[in-house]
Amino acid sequence: MSHFMPDLSSPTPRQKPLEVARDTYVIRALTPSVGGSWTNLNAMVIRGAEPIAVDAGMGTHRDSWFEDLFSLVDPEELRWIFLTHLDCDHSGNLVETLERCPNARVISSRGESFRVNASMGVPFERMRLLDDGEVFEIAGRKLQSLRPPVYDSPYTRGLFDHATRVYYASDAFCAPIPGDPVDWVEEIAPDLWAEGMARFHYSSLCPWVALADRALFRAEVERLGALGMEAIVSGHSPAIRGASVGQALELLARLPDAVPAPLDFAELTG
């Protein structure tokens, strides 16, 4: 894999919200990553009669998070915050978002709801609980909670919008950007995308995948593929669309046998 080292003395590139489907936008931030690449810190907004934010960004990008969120939806109009899980890069601005959006409620899995209450002080009265496979309808829009095949927290849930066929995959499909920031994974060389996805999952998300039963794991990926997704939004990847959706699913299905070689840190640091 060809590595580059971001210039940490320069400002981090700013990525504005990206429209991935009708009324569906990715809120993006970037951070330098191990191996000399950029990593996305994404969330998502679905506009409509009852706007919903999916995840709440990271506190280190607080200013840009709120700037982008409120460019898409008025604070008084935000109704829901779907929290995939409680990791700080997905919930970093949750408490302040609830303070600034008085009509918003958190959608959480039942197991995660206890941690949201205990660690962040969010009252249960301000939550709606939604577990794997359950459907939530807002203003005629059918949203479904679906756990991704890989995760670093067993409470993790993704969100599938049946109207646009966009799936927000939380940490799954994560892949670094080995060069200048891009909007879509198709702008990354295929070999770098494949190696980057394998390396990211093994080093940061789910090293346990090497122990998984291959047939059962592929069946879990195929369950997701059967949705007929038209786009995938990962918390840590450029957006995935079109032909890249099928390619991403296949890369994920092959993950148990895609153990990457260790990084040569001497090479990376020169």
Verbal overview:
The structure is a single chain. The protein is globular. It has one domain: Metallo-beta-lactamase, Chain A (4-Layer Sandwich), CATH 3.60.15. The model is unreliable at 1-5 and 265-270 (pLDDT under 50). With 270 residues, the chain is of the alpha/beta class. It has a seven-stranded mixed beta sheet with strand order 1-2-5-6-7-8-9. A six-stranded mixed beta sheet has the order 10-11-12-13-14-15, covered by helices on one side. Strands 3-4 form a two-stranded antiparallel sheet. Helix 6 (214-225) packs antiparallel against helix 7. The chain is 29% helix and 20% strand. It is built from eight helices and 15 strands.
Nutshell version of this structure?
By secondary structure, this protein is α/β, with parallel strands linked by helices. It is 29% helix and 20% strand.
Given this structure, which CATH class is correct?
Answer: Alpha Beta
Number of domains: 1
For the sheet with most strands, the description reads:
7 strands, mixed
Looking at this structure, what is the CATH superfamily? Ribonuclease Z/Hydroxyacylglutathione hydrolase-like
Strand order, largest beta sheet: 1-2-5-6-7-8-9
Return the CATH architecture: 4-Layer Sandwich
Count of helical segments?
A: 8
Poorly predicted ranges: 1-5, 265-270
What is the topology?
Layout: E1 18-21, E2 24-27, E3 30-33, E4 37-40, E5 43-46, E6 52-54, H1 62-72, E7 80-82, H2 88-91, H3 94-100, E8 105-108, H4 110-120, E9 127-129, E10 135-138, E11 141-146, E12 158-161, E13 166-168, H5 190-205, H6 214-225, E14 231-233, E15 240-241, H7 243-253, H8 265-269
